[in-house]
Predict the structure.
Amino acid sequence: MVLKFIFDRIMALLGLILISPLLLVVAILIRVKMPGGPVFFKQKRVGKDGKLFTIYKFRTMIVDHSGSSVSVAGESRITPLGAKLRKYKIDELPELWNVLIGDMSFVGPRPDVPGYADALTGDDMEVLKLRPGITGPASLKYRNEEELLSSVEDPQKYNDEVIYPDKVRINRYYLHHYSFWMDIKIILATVTGKKILYAGEEI
């Protein structure tokens, strides 16, 4: 995966340079529309080989909220501006910094909070061999995850029993069938919103 490593670093640097005006505008909007809190959301996540790292995102929620690690569309802790940032994935742009410094990749499993990765057993633990990604095949399949969770009676239970195990399955497939060109297709599908065929299913 040497090509992947080189691609990640070069594109992350170029991306940060090119979108720096947008990052500045979003930071100002958060300061104005969501005062009393930080611009960036920082949280410990589980990375490659189970090592913890700090992920950086734009803050989309009110300060000092109490809630689960599962986000549901329309919940009160997400601000109006935050909802827009999340809808268009703008809140995740600061993760380019994580890619640049080697904590993350453009494509890979979304990094979990401690607790989920700790519960992995048997062959499922091999997903920890992967560097977490900004996007990935599991992210594409569940691109409307927050809306899906808002439609079920128990979002936390549905996530833990249905969505998360399926994501692990998809990410294990990604590990064993890695292709740099498929990475490019996944990135393009993420940007354009178009679906692609992956592992025999449309995502």
Notes: The chain has one domain: 2-202. Residues 2-202 form one domain.
